[in-house]
Amino acid sequence: MTITLPSRPADGHKGTFGTVLVVGGCDDEVGVMLGGPAFAALGVLRSGAGRCVLAMPRSILAEALSVSPSATGLPLATDAGEAAAQLQEAAASMQAEVVGPGLGQSPWAASILEARLASPGPPVVLDADGLNLLAQDAGVLRSCVREMILTPHPGEYARLAEILGLPEAGQDDASRRGAAEALATEAGAVVVLKGARTVVTDGSRTWICDVGSAVLATGGTGDVLAGLIGGFQAQSAGTQRFESAVLGTWVHACAGERWAASHADRGLLAAELAEAVPGVLEACRRGDLDLPRCPS
After folding, report:
1. pTM of the entire predicted model
2. Does CATH place domain 19-286 in 3.40.50.720?
3. H, E, C per residue of the chain
4. Domain ranges for the chain
């Protein structure tokens, strides 16, 4: 089957095209991370989603919004229980959620992750520190009630594989495919195993991305990918997790290819990658670029 872009009715408004909650960022004794959630928000909005809400510690929220000023902010309480209640209330009006970019691995972050996955809500894209925290406590996965899309890079996959007893992911397609399918089956999730020839699978259907560029191998581009997947998931009630993950992965790879073709084989910034996304989507709309095909 050929993947399709989410519908774009002429009389639509921002509520028509979905809202995504991005949960991330940290400001603690280990360090400060605010770029990840901000770049994820850029990915959400460049995908065509109508609205993005950045849920972050108050101390760094304004700086993150300066990177992605079209998002709105939800300052999270320093008490984990209060923050969890804030997020649960916010999630009631969301169509997708991205959890993990720059979240850190503090006890506060671990509590937030556990609460988010154990509480009802929209489909969640689990990325970055969300995956690292999951690899520290397999019980969080066992208590999960959410539909998930996991987006590990090879290192994050290796940590998950160790705690879950899954096979190692090698360099070849067959090994990476088998590893991704094993994680998808174990977690009951869609898995996006990133890297050259990214693997997307729900455990029964598997698609391998055959476009992309090494220019994407830089900080922040994975956060943009998480946002794109979340944005596509939010835009249509008919869009399933597997299809959203394939579309997000492919658009992300094409945007990287296009930037490299007009610039260089290195030096891409995450914000520039997000800026390249609408051009890819417009080329698809005009029929100048063929959308990917994947198993039905």
Report:
1. 0.98
2. no
3. CECCCCCCCCCCCCCCCCEEEEECCEECCCCEECHHHHHHHHHHHHCCCCEEEEEEEHHHHHHHHHHCCCCEEEEECCCHHHHHHHHHHHHCCCCEEEECCCCCCCHHHHHHHHHHHHCCCCCEEECCHHHHHHCCCHHHHHCCCCCEEECCCHHHHHHHHHHHCCCCCCCCHHHHHHHHHHHHHHHCCEEEECCCCCEEECCCCEEECCCCCHHHCCCCHHHHHHHHHHHHHHHCCCCCHHHHHHHHHHHHHHHHHHHHHHCCCCCCCHHHHHHHHHHHHHHHHHCCCCCCECCC
4. 19-286
